[in-house]
Design brief:
The longest helix is centred in the middle third of the chain and has 37 residues. Helices cover 61% and strands 10% of the residues. A three-stranded antiparallel β-sheet has the order 2-1-3. It has two domains: 34 residues, Single Sheet (Rubrerythrin, domain 2), CATH 2.20.28; 61 residues. The protein has two helices and three strands, in the order βββαα. A hairpin with a 5-residue loop joins β1 and β2. The protein is mainly alpha-helical. α1 runs antiparallel to α2. The radius of gyration is 20 Å and the shape is elongated. It binds zinc ion. The site of zinc ion (ZN) has 8 residues, from loops.
């Protein structure tokens, strides 16, 4: 079962609403039950958010490597690949950031 805080939008998973909202401190009377499709949608968007966060973490590691290769400046082909990796991962990271911002505005972030 899921419960949403009417004050800050925090989502609680559990049989009952929490006594107090861990995010804003609102009492349990402020919580309302989320049912059916709405609850399912939250689960789905949690997975999407997790994927986005995982990709960003991975890409920032990849970027670290690409920068190391670039700084070594040995093989021009390797440097070219590193440049391409930096460009591609940057574009994807920017899109993910924009997408996550949209999620947060829509309150899709649990
Ligand atoms: Zn709250």
């Amino acid at each position: 079962m899921k419960w949403r805080c009417g004050v800050c939008g925090y989502i609680h998973d559990g049989e009952k609403a929490p006594d107090k909202c861990p995010k804003c401190g609102a009492p349990k009377e402020q919580f309302s039950k989320i049912e059916g499709d709405a609850a399912e949608l939250i689960e789905k968007s949690r997975k999407t958010n997790e994927m986005h966060v995982a990709i960003m973490g991975l890409y920032s590691k990849v970027q670290k490597w690409a920068k190391i290769v670039k700084n070594e400046d040995l093989d021009p082909t390797c440097v070219q690949i590193a440049d391409r990796v930096l460009k591609d991962t940057n574009e994807t990271i920017q899109s993910i950031k924009a997408e996550l911002e949209t999620h947060m505005k829509k309150g899709k972030w649990g």
